[in-house]
Amino acid sequence: MAPEVSFYxxxxxxxxxxxxxxxxxxxxxxxxxxxxxxxxxxxxxxKPDKGNFFPNLLDVSPSSYAQEFTSEDGVYNxxxxxxxGGSVINAGFYSRAEPEFLKQAGLNEALVNYSYQWVExxxxxxxxxxxxxxALRDGLLEAGVLPNNGFxxxxxxGTKIGGTIFDGDDHRHTAADLLEYANPxxxxxxxxxTVEKIIFETKVFSRTRxxxxxFEDELGKKHWALLTKDYxxxxxxxxxxxxxxxxxxxxxxxxxxxxxxxGIRVVxxxxxxxxxxxxxxxxxxxVPSPSxxxxxxxxxxxxxxxxxxxxxxxxxxxxxxxxxxxxxxLAAILNQTEQSSTKMFQEGILNxxxxxxxxxxxxIIFEKxxxxxxxxxxxxxxxxxxxxxxxxxxxxxxxxxxxKCVHGVKIAIDAVYSKSFSNFRYEILSAKAxxxxxxxxxxxxxxxxxxxAFSLEKFCMDTVMTIWHYHxxxxxxxxxxxxxxxxxxxxxxxxxGSTFTSSPGTNPQATVMMLGRYMGLKILQERYFGKYRKx
Length: 535
Prior knowledge:
Layout (H helix, E strand, L loop, with lengths): L4 E4 L1 E4 L5 H8 L5 E4 L17 H6 L7 E5 L5 E5 L12 E2 L4 H6 L4 H15 L7 H12 L5 E4 L6 E4 L1 E2 L22 E4 L3 E8 L6 E9 L5 E6 L6 E4 L2 H11 L2 E2 L1 H6 L6 E2 L5 E3 L3 E8 L11 E4 L4 E7 L5 H15 L8 H8 L11 E8 L6 E4 L10 E3 L6 H18 L14 H9 L16 H7 L2 E2 L22 E2 L1 E3 L14 H21 L6
Parallel strand pairs: 1-13, 2-3, 2-14, 3-10, 7-8, 12-25, 14-26, 15-16
Antiparallel strand pairs: 4-5, 6-9, 8-19, 11-12, 12-13, 17-22, 18-21, 18-24, 19-20, 20-21, 22-23
Helix pairs in contact: 1-13, 4-13, 5-10, 8-11, 10-12
Keywords: Disulfide bond, FAD, Flavoprotein, Signal
GO molecular function: flavin adenine dinucleotide binding; oxidoreductase activity, acting on CH-OH group of donors
Family: Belongs to the GMC oxidoreductase family.
């Protein structure tokens, strides 16, 4: 049990994808506290494994690893609420950032590579490429997403097999595993610990300085965690793209007009907190298969030159209610389709749930828009840190984003109807039927156009979803400086995806974990030897 008052060199808010590697690194030579609002992924070791991907995301119980929310755009979304953060609930793909991202962030290349390797040694693997994934990869190559780059962690144009955080037994390894690197005598990790606000010291003629935090435990008891007197001690926000800007606002740093609305004392008027929030639009195709398919999450990616990523999963499980929704929509499509001579498909027309059973007999192909221009913002909904803030992403507000989606969906359709993928699709199902299937599913709360299955522009807008790669809200150069220090405040940094101006690589988790290690090393260097210098 946490003491009522305690003192640490570093207080990290959020034991997620960045917070865990950051804490493990800082504990090498400093006393560290990690405050995680969720529980442990180790209580039920098989729960985060590959076969439970969608059931975990769709779990709405109070103990769920994923806290659901719906953006003001009408798109369902989720926010991690567990030690290890998003790495506990994502599709597991591990791929490094593009060089342009690292250069824009001003990161030291040698230290970046060392930090990636530190992560990879513990949790990254080469995924198996079985029949369904291999057929779709070859279909993408046929569709022109070239060249075939084989297996690599690096971000390269063309089609490549990336890394995964699932081992050969389909067991998930997460950012929480990186705490195995920590010095156990210098680190404390409190679970179900919800930070209510950061405490600041404000003096005339001095800059505002973070002093510590107030947090509440699972039983509702308040605790004060304070920084040691060493002037290099810091509070570090690693609560993610929703949590970090939300907590800054609750602590009095943010747009003053919004803070005053909730009676929050303004510590510093910072209008850029909560701004520049971006979510990469996701659109999907669900492709039923006449042949059995393996259970697979994302194993490869098609990286196009026009700004679209194509990924896929197969044989996954839905919750019973979602299975019924898919079966009902599929039945509506099949009943409009000419009867097939294939016995299996005739059975599918009579009983669409036979195409699902407990797992989908088929796969889902994802199209993600890279670097969307459209951006939104985050606002407080109330003063309860346990509640999600109000979020608007403004999907496809920029026409350029919509064109990327249209082009990407066309590539995905070409891959489905390639020769390489022919064993895993029904000839009877046209591309229009596949689009109509998605249009008929309750994937979001957005209205549908009558032409959604005929117009790819309307299809993209109407069926947009999230790939959970939202970022921004405390952007580099706007809210934090190049060292991730909050502008205008002493002893406070933000190390997580809220600082990103774009989502790194095809999937950000590798870079978020790398950044935790990278910044931990840099902070220790500053603490003991002065500012880290590029070599």
